[in-house]
Amino acid sequence: MKYWAYLVAKLMIAGVFLRGLGWAIFHAWPQTDTFLAGRRVRSDLFAHDLPYTFAMWLYALVCIGVVWVIVWDQRYRCRTCLRRLRMPIQSGSWNHVLFGAPRTDYICLYGHGTLRVSELQITGHQEPDWEPHDDMWKNCFRSKRRKNKSSWPLSYTFPAKQV
Ligand SMILES: [Zn+2]
Predict the structure, then answer these.
(1) What total number of domains does the chain contain?
(2) From ligand 1's centre to the CA of 75, what distance in Å?
(3) pTM as predicted
(4) Nearest Cα residue to 61 out of 22, 8, 6
(5) How close is the Cα of 142 to the center of ligand 1, in Å?
């Protein structure tokens, strides 16, 4: 939930910024006044004025680029803590595609999960696979308790007598 809320928040902030940029371009561009039935009408210059149309095409490219960067950034974030995933590890081989296709694994530094990104996509686009991890500290303490229980007869020592 937090993951998707963060994406929506980023898209909304980018939408406000890009809408403002479009508004600034529209109002900063020199306009020719058109009089229609005695009233001054501000006409849309898109597809009528070549430099303005070119500027709007660039604006559209910037909008697409910003949305692409937001989605790309979101894809490589932890689903739990929203931090950037780190430590890419490449595995598999391009020479042995059937037995181990090349892929890159990214992990959250706080142990929340692993993102597996396939480098080879033969059957079309494959979404990255997010695998959440259990709480690693729980596992550490659980294994320590088990270790103490299993080694109890050998490691048991009598409490020292206090003098
Ligand atoms: Zn995390």
Answers:
(1) 2
(2) 13
(3) 0.70
(4) 22
(5) 21
Query: Does 110 fall in a domain?
Result: yes
Is 126 domain-assigned?
yes
**Per-residue pLDDT for 84 more than 60?**
yes
Range of the domain at 130: 86-145
Q: How far is the CA of 3 from the centre of ligand 1 (A)?
A: 11
How confident is the model over 14-71, as pLDDT tens digits?
Answer: 999 999 999 999 888 887 777 777 777 777 788 888 999 999 999 999 999 999 999 9
- What are the residues whose beta carbon lies below 5 Å from ligand 1 (ion)? 78, 80-81, 108, 110, 112
Read off the DSSP letter of residue 105. Answer: E
Residue 67 in any domain: the answer is yes
d(CA 137, CA 134): 9
Task: Give the mean pLDDT of 73-77.
Answer: 94
CA of 137 to the centre of ligand 1 (A): 14
**Cα 79 to Cα 115: distance, rounded to the nearest angstrom:** 10
Q: Where is pLDDT greater, at 97 or 50? A: 50
Residue 32 identity (one-letter amino acid): T
Residues 60 and 91 occupy one common structural domain? no
At 88, give phi and psi (nearest 5°).
Answer: -65, 130
Is 155 contained in some domain? no
What is the 37 CA–ligand 1 centroid distance (Å)? 63
